[in-house]
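Worked example

This section walks through a single chain of length 134. The input is the sequence exactly as stored; nothing has been trimmed or padded.
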Amino acid sequence: MALWLIMPITLRVHNQKLSICQLPPEAPAPPEILAHPLTCFFRTHDEATLVCPAALTPKNTAKVESGFIALELVGPFAFDQTGILIQVTAPLAAAGVSIVSLSSFNTDYVLIKADQWEAAIAALKKAGHRVDKN
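Given that input, the structure is written out below as tokens.
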């Protein structure tokens, strides 16, 4: 049996279009954008990345990739639970759907391109997962 069939997961679709923005490494976290749902700011030694609603993409964006929607793995999931994310990402990979994953304290989110929606949902349902529209 494939690993991703061990535990069916419920996913919630968030239809709001999202952008992933690469900002200069010294860029501050934009509090006016981070106040919105489905946002994330991550800094490394050589870049800052912002995930935000597409309509809020900042002007100082070095690079931007738009057209994502979020699939929420309905949790919460305990930190000691293993294999949760792969149960969703493996069937998506097998269907040729690329993803960006994000984690919160309670759960995980998988961002997919909106134009891959049909392939993603078909693959997830075939793997035994439930998909709820938000």
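What to look for: Helices lie at 31-34, 84-94, 117-126.
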